[in-house]
Design goal:
eight-stranded mixed beta sheet; 22 strands; about 425 residues; four-stranded antiparallel beta sheet; about 20% strand; single chain; Gyrase A, domain 2; Alkaline Phosphatase, subunit A; alpha/beta
């Protein structure tokens, strides 16, 4: 290939659905001038798995990203939100592009698994964890300069938060969509001035939910999950547990240490209200989730339900990190971090005191997260029931996308739009 590829800007607008476009006039206008298609997702419909499929053209069974985190059997530990690209198997989009055009340049702005990726420009969240226990926001950048890359990947997660807090139809969520659309307008205008083809896509839609499902508490009550206690606080003991779950929104990987326990684990979870489906070997294979990192069983919540990570039976014995925003220590996803504890009348005073200590350079604990999951009104992870509640793909060029696209077709589509495919 001798002519330079068409430059692309790919915006991953998390939670974007066809229904939300009615509240986002700039994105709707882009689709009107260009083209729009229903976009499939993967199971689980979560960020790390979906983005990895977009960039490799593979399902989780092949690229290995079975969720936003999983149980690392070789470490005996549950780890979420890892950042190294070496965890993602397969031929990446930029690898394929460079085989056709060796000078192809890529900027990754906050798409996941950015560190260690063979991209030219990288920006990704990377807080500073000081030796005295303090934590400060920061980012990892490489190199410390900007250029005009052939492909710019930009992660836009802003809708994720209010839609989980309030649900996708709440006026506050619709306002968040309109506000985000306003913020995106200058970026879309600049891309047009540069002659960039713009692709806007989403990983999943967010559904209305009202039922938290305490999957680990059910396993504990059945005598299958073990904890160990330190200073009066209970911690999950995955290595000693016969079974436990890594909760990831509306999907949970259930790890069962001994094959003879599988029937009992299945019996316990089939009786648990809110569990819609349990996938064994055949089910995982059918959904492209049969990878060694997956649980022996995969639980999928009913449409209005989602899984908590909670494993303690008495809130007085919850670990201290349970009331913190602590995405790396919790053995599962915790959307309660989006709220301040409504049962604590002094919660804002506590937050102000912790913030003051932080500004003075002192150690602090922002222990304001509730242990009650009931306020959560939006979740994702299941496959969508209706197209208007699922992901969507927009392209600034007319006629480029029409019918439904599978998530595995995003990679070849982007190569074609660049003039490489």
């Amino acid at each position: 290939m001798t002519t330079r590829p068409t430059p692309l800007l790919v915006l991953d607008v998390v939670g974007l659905t066809p229904a939300l476009l009615d509240h986002m006039p700039h994105l709707k206008a882009l689709a009107g001038r260009g083209s729009q298609a229903e976009l499939g997702t993967v199971l689980p419909a979560v960020t790390c798995a979906a983005q990895s499929t977009f960039l490799t053209g593979m399902l989780p069974a092949e690229h290995g990203i079975v969720g936003n985190g999983w149980y690392f059997r070789e470490l005996g530990d549950v780890l979420l939100w890892r950042q190294h690209n070496g965890l993602v198997a397969g031929d990446k989009l930029w690898d394929a592009a460079r085989r056709a055009y060796p000078g192809y340049t890529v900027a990754n702005i906050c798409w996941w698994y950015a560190m260690g990726a063979d991209t030219d420009y990288t920006v990704t969240p990377r807080p500073i964890y000081y030796a005295d226990g303090r934590k400060e926001p920061d980012c990892y950048t490489r190199p410390h300069r900007t250029r005009r890359p052939d492909l710019t990947l930009c992660y836009v997660p802003h809708l994720d938060y209010d839609l989980q807090r309030f649900g996708p139809r709440d006026p506050r969520s619709l306002k968040a969509a309109a506000d985000l659309d306003t913020e995106l307008a200058p970026l879309l205008e600049e891309a047009a001035e540069e002659g960039r083809t713009v692709v806007v896509l989403s990983e999943y839609g967010i559904s209305e939910v009202s039922r938290p499902v305490d999957i680990n508490r059910a396993l504990r009550r059945a005598g299958l999950l073990e904890v160990h206690t330190q200073d009066g606080m209970e911690y999950l003991d995955p290595m000693a547990s016969r079974a436990f779950a890594v909760a990831d929104h509306q999907l949970a990987h259930v790890y069962v240490r001994r094959p003879e326990d599988l029937p009992r684990v299945r019996e316990v979870l089939e009786e648990l209200p809110g569990v819609g489906e349990l996938l064994g070997d055949e089910g995982k294979k059918e959904h492209g989730l049969d990878h060694p990192r997956s649980g022996e069983l995969v639980a999928v919540a009913e449409p209005d339900a989602w899984f908590t990570y909670y494993y303690w039976l008495d809130d007085a014995r919850a670990p201290d990190f349970a009331q913190l925003v602590e995405i790396h220590r919790k053995p599962g996803y915790d959307p309660a971090e989006l709220f301040m504890d409504p049962l604590d009348p002094y919660v804002k005073v506590k937050a102000a005191g912790a913030l003051a200590r932080k500004k003075l350079g002192m150690r602090y604990r922002m222990a304001v997260v509730p242990l009650d999951p009931s306020p959560v009104r939006g979740s994702h992870g299941r496959l969508p029931q209706r197209a208007e509640e699922g992901p969507v793909l927009l392209c600034s060029r007319p006629g480029e996308v029409t019918g439904p696209l599978a998530a595995t077709e995003v990679k070849p589509l982007l190569l074609r739009l660049a003039g490489i495919g």
